[in-house]
Amino acid sequence: MTDVSSEPIGAAPSAAPFDILIVGGGMITADLILPSVYHLQRTGRVGRILISARTSEPLRALQSHQELARAFPGSTFEAHPPLSAPPDVPYPDRYREVIASLAPRQMVIVAVPDALHYAVVREALAHEQHVLCVKPLVLRHAEAMDIARLAHDRGLFVGVEYHKRFDRRALVARRAYREGRFGEFMMGEARLYEPYYYRHSNFQTWFTCEATDPFTYVGCHYVDLVSFITGLRPTSVSVDGVRRAFPNGQEGYLWSSGRVRYENGAMLTVTDGLGYPDAAAGMNDQGLVMYCEGADATGLIDHDDHQRGVQYASVSTDGVRYRYVSPDFFQLVPWEGAGYRPIGYGYDSIAANVRAARHVDHDLAGLTSSAAMAERRKRLAAIDAAGLLATPANSSTNELVIEAARRSIVNDGILVPIVYDEPAPVRRP
Predict the structure, then answer these.
(1) pTM here?
(2) If we measure between CA atoms, which residue out of 295, 229, 225, 232 comes closest to residue 263?
């Protein structure tokens, strides 16, 4: 499998549809995952859609979501726990029961807080399920390697949803960089500031200093992107943070500043936070600048992901009236079918990961079990080698960076080296 780009509208499905279970009913499920999966279902790529959450409250919100209802008339999902369950009664292990009820070799999309990824991904693999996990995959490199081994042994696909890889800007930059047009990356700056209102969401229940930080949660997008463009491996990480209280009194790192050194000596500064003004024109503030050196010249990659050239001023008095609008990440737009369809690199990423998982099991009828497994592993190795989709096998440097970052930020920004080809690549500070 060499082509995992978006299939054109109306293209015939390349493999039989399978069921998808989404574990987690929060913001990313409502804004990106569920609408993407709804469209994949109505175009014949997905069968049943199930969603499991800790309580019925977020599932009720998804079921009554007016934008989703307008875009996908008649589409629905199976709720676990059921919508009739009291909203304040927790079902912490319900996802395990639902995973166990699936037929083998379907797909589980993991959309829960970072610290819970490993347990849910491993549960899915233990029950013979393909996996797509929101970034970062896990918080420790050893956990990523364990997932990679388990997936290989069972011939299962595991993708990590680094959707910036499918931004056309990133794809153009990757090709041009690897063709030598910019020279060698030397110095860069990345930023990603999410809205202030995140502090009033369920973030305040899990985004604590002990669990995560802005560099780990969103800065990882740009760390992944630099390696995706250049192929360079990080060799040290330093991250410091600013502790602030959420409205509920929980304390978290709500601002962070990180520095990543690469194997060629290059450096990347990454600043992040949960503090972009709610009243400002953009939905967030993000971008990447990379300076490179060539033969008696320097090269530059400058992506302003905050301002993508579209501004709208609304006559409505509901919310912010003047907005920068991104047509590139995710939008619901008219199409030749009912409702609206998703467009943008967010949808492209999810569709490509689903398509890759379906490809692994496609057209294996008539093969012996050993021959079928050998073919699955061959296909998975091709996906790993292509490097377009992030997998545990081809993007584990991300877990090294995350593990080093977490050790650094809780030790006041101390430098944490990464040494490859050692049993414990991330050195303790």
Answers:
(1) 0.94
(2) 232
For residue 257, what are the β-bridge partners? Answer: 240, 271
Q: Which CATH class is domain 168-328+399-417?
A: alpha beta
Bridge-based pairing of strands 130-134 and 107-110 is parallel
Tell me the pLDDT tens digit for each residue of 312-351.
Answer: 999 987 778 899 999 999 999 999 999 999 999 999 999 9
Q: Which two tokens stand for residue 414?
A: 């101390």
Q: Start-end ranges of CATH 3.40.50.720 in the chain?
A: 18-163+335-395
Q: List the one residue out of 193, 194, 273, 190 whose CA is nearest residue 227.
A: 190
CATH 3.30.360.10 positions along the chain are 168-328+399-417
Residue 151 CA neighbour count, 13 Å, CB half: 29
Composition of the chain by helix, strand, coil, percent to 5: 35, 25, 40
**At which residue do the structure tokens 């797909």 appear?**
107
SS3 sequence of 24-50: CCCHHHHHHHHHHHHHHHHCCCEEEEE
Residue 242: both structure tokens together: 């600013």
| Residue reference for tokens 């962070």 | 256
- The string of pLDDT tens digits covering residues 28-80 is 999 999 999 999 999 999 999 999 999 999 999 999 999 999 999 999 999 99
Give the sheet arrangement for strand 78-80, strand by strand: 78-80, 46-52, 18-23, 107-110, 130-134, 158-161
The CATH code for residues 18-163+335-395 is 3.40.50.720
Q: Which residues contact 415 (CB under 8 A, 6 or more apart)?
A: 236, 237, 238, 408, 429
Residue 160 φ then ψ, to 5°: -115, 130
